[in-house]
Design brief:
The protein is mainly alpha-helical and about 100 residues long. Helix content is about 60%, strand content about 10%. A 3-stranded antiparallel beta sheet has the order 1-3-2. The protein is globular.
């Protein structure tokens, strides 16, 4: 049986990924070693306010790392749970890989 703290962390991760924008932010950060806000905003085509809001959400929940260098803010994702889940999702869901499930 899952411990309550472990269950809560998994639910929080799934809630974070339930947003299309946060999902895209995490995918981009996991694919790159590190990105600043401008790079991320340009890659995803998001407004500054949306990018900052979603980065703040993910940072407060511990899914991304942050560092500041002069005027630039850099973000990265080294969270094992996030990386593993995104890798699993990239492989496809059982429904898309199983011909019986698509009928």
């Amino acid at each position: 049986m899952l411990e309550e703290s472990s269950l809560a962390e998994k639910v929080t991760l799934l809630e974070a990924l339930a947003s299309r924008t946060r999902f895209r932010v995490l995918k981009s950060l996991c694919a790159a070693e590190e990105m600043n806000v401008r790079e991320l905003r340009n890659e995803l085509g998001l407004p500054q306010s949306t990018t900052s809001r979603e980065l703040s959400f993910l940072r407060m929940r511990g899914f991304i790392n942050f560092r500041r260098e002069a005027q630039n803010h850099y973000y990265s994702c080294h969270h094992d749970g996030v990386r593993k889940l995104l890798q699993t999702l990239d492989k496809g869901t059982p429904a898309t890989n199983n011909p019986e499930m698509t009928r």
